[in-house]
Write a structure and sequence with these properties.
There is one protein chain. By secondary structure, the chain is of the alpha/beta class. Helix content is 23%, strand content 27%. The protein is built from 5 helices and 8 strands. Helix 1 packs across helix 2. The longest helix is centred in the first third of the chain and has 12 residues. The protein is globular and about 40 Å long.
Length: 168
């Protein structure tokens, strides 16, 4: 992985394989704690679920982390004393937190790490403190594995976090 300085708030990384995306998830998991919201965005096939798989591994949760597209959300309990991982795919949900109320994310957030794929415009009201992760990939007929990952910390909790550990 190669880090590219962008501005003092954002961290931009270049990831060249699915294994590196999983490793990024492992590193990011070391920074996560109960109450954290991570929003993932990117094209289909960008690597959102691969990153989340690494997060789950790093957090030491139970169950295979797979895309929750058809079930909307999966809870992966911790195998140790860490927080559970709540993995949400909001792709099929229309918009706004109202539609997501049945998932009780606001109730789960204090004791869980919540990762939401396709959450823009849908879950921002949960908390001012969140990490937004944008994954860019080449689109079209390509086998290019290169991904450009931009991490944007929002709120006091994340602007104080040392994201430089992700580039080590």
């Amino acid at each position: 992985m190669e880090a590219v300085p962008r501005n003092p708030v954002e961290t931009e990384l270049t990831v060249t394989s699915p294994e590196q995306m999983r490793e990024l998830g492992l590193k990011l998991a070391k920074l996560l704690r109960a109450g954290d919201l991570v929003m993932l965005s990117g094209e289909l096939g960008a690597g959102k679920t691969t990153l989340t798989r690494g997060l789950g591994e790093g957090l030491g949760v139970r169950g295979a982390v797979t895309s929750p597209t058809f079930v909307i959300a999966r809870v992966h309990p911790s195998l140790g004393d860490g927080p559970p991982l709540v993995h949400v795919d909001a792709y099929r949900l229309g918009g706004g937190l109202d539609e997501m109320e049945d998932l009780d994310l606001d109730v789960s957030l204090p004791e869980s790490v919540i990762v939401v794929e396709w959450g823009e415009g849908k879950v921002e009201e949960l908390t001012d403190d969140r990490l937004q992760v944008q994954i860019h990939r080449a689109v079209g007929d390509t086998t290019d594995e290169v991904r450009h990952v931009t991490l944007t910390p929002l709120g006091e909790r994340w602007t104080a976090a040392d994201l430089s550990v992700l580039t080590a």
